[in-house]
Amino acid sequence: xxxxxxxxxxxxxxxxxxxxxxxxxxxxxxxxxxxxxxxxxxxxxxxxxxxxxxxxxxxxxxxxxxxxxxxxxxxxxxxxxxxxxxxxxxxxxxxxxxxxxxxxxxxxxxxxxxxxxxxxxxxxxxxxxxxxxxxxxxxxxxxxxxxxxxxxxxxxxxxxxxxxxxxxxxxxxxxxxxxxxxxxxxxxxxxxxxxxxxxxxxxxxxxxxxxxxxxxxxxxxxxxxxxxxxxxxxxxx
Length: 237
Ligand SMILES: C[S@@+](CC[C@H](N)C(=O)[O-])C[C@H]1O[C@@H](n2cnc3c(N)ncnc32)[C@H](O)[C@@H]1O
Hints:
Elements: H1 22-37, H2 40-51, E1 58-62, H3 68-77, E2 85-90, H4 97-106, E3 109-114, H5 117-123, E4 131-135, H6 143-153, E5 159-165, H7 169-175, H8 185-196, H9 203-209, E6 214-221, E7 225-231
Parallel strand pairs: 1-2, 1-4, 2-3, 4-5
Antiparallel strand pairs: 5-7, 6-7
Helix pairs in contact: 2-3, 3-4, 5-6
S-adenosylmethionine (SAM) binds next to helix 1.
């Protein structure tokens, strides 16, 4: 028994730190390196190419963090997808003028929303997007919360695309190597915690079906990632 048979959720340290806390700033820098090591940008871009058939007008990125992940995705997609409107939502307001400038230069318009996703979704019932993306976000929630989240997200877009941690021994072992890239205590704790709360098999598909959605793909991707793509009920993406 590896202890990874079932998801285990503990609060992550980063979620309890102020945005300008030096440990939080360092942890967000670490997160950028972890995204690179996990090939998360490449994974998300290939999902978008495969499942979003026409250039989208509006995308919602939930749990966007400092927005650097989505900027890297936009750089990969801009050739095929000019002029996308991107709404980046996070509990913490981390969107800087420099980031807006980076998106402007790509011709993408960015709106930052600082809000809890559950409260925001309930208050914005009629807001619609062509796709919703999440990166290293769903694992923050237990299964009941995910069903609630999915029930709020599914009516907002024909597709939800997710790149999450894979709950495997290999991924957990890799988190023990994080000191080698200079990761701080917050990152070392939260990365291991994220793997234990991550996904395997068809767990997300089951939760998506609980809100009458249609799972399109769920599998391990690369060495450490787990992807999920779901279509909303009645939508033919
Ligand atoms: C592990 S970070 C990933 C950030 C970003 N997607 C990336 O890859 O760099 C998870 C993010 O989810 C945000 N978050 C957690 N719970 C949230 C909630 N209920 N509503 C909105 N954002 C939330 C956190 O503030 C954090 O920025």
